[in-house]
Design brief:
CATH class of the largest domain: Alpha Beta
Strand content: 25-35%
Helix content: 10-25%
Distance between the termini: 30 Å
Mean pLDDT: 94
Number of strands: 8
Structural class: alpha+beta
Number of helices: 3
Low-confidence stretches: none
Radius of gyration: 15 Å
Order of helices and strands: HEHEEEEEEHE
Largest sheet: 5 strands, antiparallel
Number of domains: 2
CATH topology of the largest domain: Ribosomal Protein S8, Chain: A, domain 1
């Protein structure tokens, strides 16, 4: 099976593991996935991650985060831009997620960053996903 959208695969694995109450999950490693996972950690959606570079591709071990009543910290995670339909936004039209409660993750010429950071850096780009 060929992987046409590794980012959608990452988001689906996180969504499924959180829904099943798993403490952690492992995904194949890539620079883009590492950047996304770092933002999820920095924004408080996951507890952390380990970057395992062993083997031909390596893996990212993601530790999920749950709030007090056992609910996952990530209530929703959604792919916006897909291989079949890329979604680009200029610096003035970056979408807000749940009036700022969620995070838009973007791929810009200056790297992968949140929507808030891309507005601050005055740079647009591809809207990868939304997390809330």
């Amino acid at each position: 099976m060929s992987m046409t959208d590794p980012i959608a695969d990452l988001l689906t694995r996180i969504r499924n593991a959180a829904g099943a109450g798993h403490a952690s999950l492992s995904v194949p490693r890539s620079k883009m996935k590492l950047a996304i996972v770092q933002i999820l950690r920095d924004e408080g959606f996951i507890d952390g991650f380990e970057d395992d570079e062993s083997g031909p591709q390596g893996a990212i071990e993601i530790r999920l985060k749950y709030v007090a009543d056992g609910q996952p910290a990530i209530t929703g995670i959604e792919r916006v831009s897909r291989p079949g339909r890329r979604v680009y936004r200029g610096k003035g039209e970056i979408p807000r997620v749940l009036n700022g409660l969620g995070v838009t993750i973007m791929s810009t010429p200056r790297g992968v960053m949140t929507g808030v950071a891309s507005v601050k850096n005055e740079v647009g780009g591809e809207v990868l996903c939304s997390v809330w």
